[in-house]
Design goal:
- It is built from two helices and 20 strands.
- By secondary structure, it is mainly beta.
- The strands form five sheets. It has a four-stranded antiparallel sheet with strand order 1-2-3-4, with no helix packed on it. A four-stranded antiparallel sheet has the order 5-6-7-8.
- The radius of gyration is 17 Å and the shape is globular.
- The two termini are 28 Å apart.
- The N terminus and C terminus are likely disordered.
Length: 238
């Protein structure tokens, strides 16, 4: 299925959004989820928009919401910040009860909101624990499965669960690396792609092509399933 985003759609989002910055964005079938909330605010949450970015629903979550993903059966996975308690929460809930069950909580540590991440499929949830330098994996119902050590990473930042095999992609922002890990307790990297410019977010498309955001270069690296560069970085115009 091919969708066309109308010209000026990003500006449209900026004009329509009133609750603060958009920290993250994810696609779920015919919906777009924007994670919103100004640092220190109490009116953050998730905006659910149609594929042409029209606002349909706003789900309020106290504090700031940094990422969100909707799964089958109405499940909603969110990573939010409770600024009063100085904690960051990964929760498994629904549209009507977004906080639901807290499956992972980590204390405030400077800009930890920008250096921890989460990913989800219909079967699993993965969370980067920056403090302990671990990739923590849970079932879709929030039960803990395993931890993968990221102790030799300088700044574990982004994670993406591969939909077609039990593996995860993890970025090391300061180390300039992307790694692929099998989802086993004593996992070692299957491969490493080095020389990336402060990599942060990571995702894949249906063909298996990997997209990695470069904070330093303001670019997107395109990488093959085997961890090899496919194209030169695509510059993102500001």
């Amino acid at each position: 299925m091919t969708h066309s985003i109308p010209p000026g759609s990003i500006e449209f989002v900026k004009k329509q959004k009133t609750s603060g910055w958009c920290w993250g964005i994810s696609a779920s079938k015919e919906k777009i989820l924007c994670s919103i909330g100004l640092t220190g605010a109490t009116d953050g949450g998730v905006e659910i928009r149609s594929i042409d970015l029209r606002l349909e629903t706003k789900i309020e979550i106290p504090g700031s919401t940094y990422s969100a993903q909707q799964l089958r059966g109405g499940k909603l996975i969110t990573k939010s910040c409770n600024h009063m308690g100085r904690t960051f929460l990964t929760s498994l809930g629904t549209v009507t009860n977004p906080i639901g069950t807290i499956i992972h909580e980590v204390g405030y540590n400077g800009n930890i909101a920008f250096v921890s991440d989460m990913a989800a499929t219909d079967n699993q949830i993965a969370v980067i624990d920056y403090v302990e330098k671990q990739l923590r994996v849970f079932t879709a119902t929030g039960d803990h499965q395993l931890n993968i050590s990221l102790a030799d990473m300088q700044w574990p930042r982004g994670v993406h669960l591969l939909p077609y095999e039990p593996a995860a992609l993890v970025t090391d922002r300061t180390g300039g690396e992307l790694r692929k890990y099998p989802l086993t307790a004593a996992a070692k990297p299957v491969w490493r792609c080095r020389g990336l410019g402060e990599p942060t977010g990571v995702t894949t498309d249906e063909s298996g092509l990997i997209y990695v955001c470069s904070h330093k270069l303001k670019a997107i690296h395109l990488i093959t399933e085997m961890g090899l560069y496919k194209f030169q970085p695509l510059l993102v115009r500001s």
